[in-house]
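If your schedule permits, I should be very grateful for your opinion on a structural question. I have a record of one protein: its chain in single-letter code and its fold written as discrete structure tokens. Kindly check, if you would, that the fold set down in the tokens agrees with what the sequence suggests. I remain grateful for any guidance, and I place the record below:

***
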Amino acid sequence: MADFTRADVAHLLRRAGFGGRAAEIDALMTRPSWAAVVDGVLDISANPADITPAAVDDLENPWYPPWVAGVHHWMDRMATSPTPIVEKMALFWHSNLASSTDAAYPRLVVRQIKTYRALGLGDVHSLMQAMAIDPAMLVYLDNASNVGASPNENFARELMELFTLGNGAFTEADVVGMARAWTGHNFDDEAERYAFRAADHDNGQKTIFGITKNWDGPATITEIVRGSRQATCARFLAAKIWSFFAAPNPPASLVDALAANFIAGNMNVKVLLRSIFLRPEFRVAAARTALVRSPIEWQVATMRATGLPAATLHPEWWMDRLGQTLYTPPNVSGWKQNQAWISTSAQWAKAAFADYVRWKANEAGVFAGTDRMTPAAAAQTALDRFGVDAPSPLSRQRLEEYVAREQQARRSWTIAPNLVALTMLTPDVQLA
């Protein structure tokens, strides 16, 4: 007898990606064990090539058109990738190693996400080293102009506080030393790439984490991830990644266990994710309803369900109103969870997006024929398409009642488009 249920698989596909249709759930149900299901989801051998659209590099109009091109590229990739865990992890790093078009050209942030996509499931040490000299990060946190004559502490502070260790895990003296260590690790504006300028690097003795020597920037990351601060880093990242994929505020004992596995796995993110998905706490009832989908996740789930691309649905038109604009986190802390997505204005924005989607979906023939189905069959078709494997009784009831009412009123032509909008707005689709 299998050690997992259909509900477990549906839950995993929502958290490790953007939801799974009935056929995708069926495919994983054939696996012999929960560990085999998890390994299937974490298998990224089919990850497609990452080719940045040429429009992202429009130098004559460097802001809005490249941003739109970048949004469409990533939204389509999230919606269609056979390895959605890659995109979901890149979305996590986009918020937790944040840079923004508020400071950097969209093309730089799009390239940064390409790096997160390539490295986000691997060795944290490699990821952090690449992040530190990424052009978007250099510009966003001012290390582009961090020189020995006048050290800038922005990147140094956030590297420890928000990216690797957490508040309270370092001292102000560490910030000073860290800033000096990263002097000279700058940015070539003309070539738009990292440049180390030896003349601007502070080669003096610096004290960081109680260790005094001639620290250089990359060595500080090695110390954090591989050296004296590894345990703190492992716990910090384990808690953040659990909170993103499972549920907020994990207990200390759970974080300790995950961090131990993380360290044993040489700080490999895929190892940590496997540990998270295999934990019994990941599959308990409370965890299944612990997260509200972010607006981007909700829009991607809609694109997956309808099969319509970003060029048709234009998710970028609603991102600001929904409260989550791709490539533009609100600040270096990234996006919050759950309550951050629940407001009157956000619900109105969701209704407006759903209204637009229903007509585009109707033009494409999505849910065609549901007007001739029984109310139960029509509702089930909609729920299956949106990957809602175990809907709440009330959601099912409301969808069935709507179909029955329209059929009785001889307004069957409204059923297909409105089923799209109504299903989008159910709590079942809005929960991750």
